[in-house]
Amino acid sequence: MSEAELHVLRARLLGGIRNKAARGELRRNLPVGFVWGEQDGEVCLHPDESVRAAIQTVFTRFAELGSVRRV
């Protein structure tokens, strides 16, 4: 493919992403511990208790130690 064709394809892909974002339909990956809910745009905590407990442990240790390196 020529450089011009690649430029046009990329511009169309980015345009589609921008249109989805403008409509509120763009979904990106969520941080660990969160999942998409049933309703549009709803974000919920992960339903697995072990995932939530592991994340809580990390934040608790950070509060105790005060440094990411020490955690």
| Main β-sheet description | 2 strands, antiparallel
Order of helices and strands: HEEH
Number of helices: 2
Spatial gap, N to C terminus:
49 Å
Fraction in helix: 40-55%
Explained architecture:
The chain is mainly alpha-helical and 71 residues long. The chain folds into 2 domains: 1-28; 31-71, no CATH class. The protein has helices spanning 3-23, 49-65; strands at residues 34-36, 43-45. The chain has a two-stranded antiparallel sheet. The mean pLDDT is 90.
List keywords for this structure.
mainly alpha; 2 domains; 71 residues; two-stranded antiparallel sheet
How is the secondary structure organized here?
Elements: H1 3-23, E1 34-36, E2 43-45, H2 49-65
Antiparallel strand pairs: 1-2
Write a brief caption for the model:
With 71 residues, the protein is mostly helical.
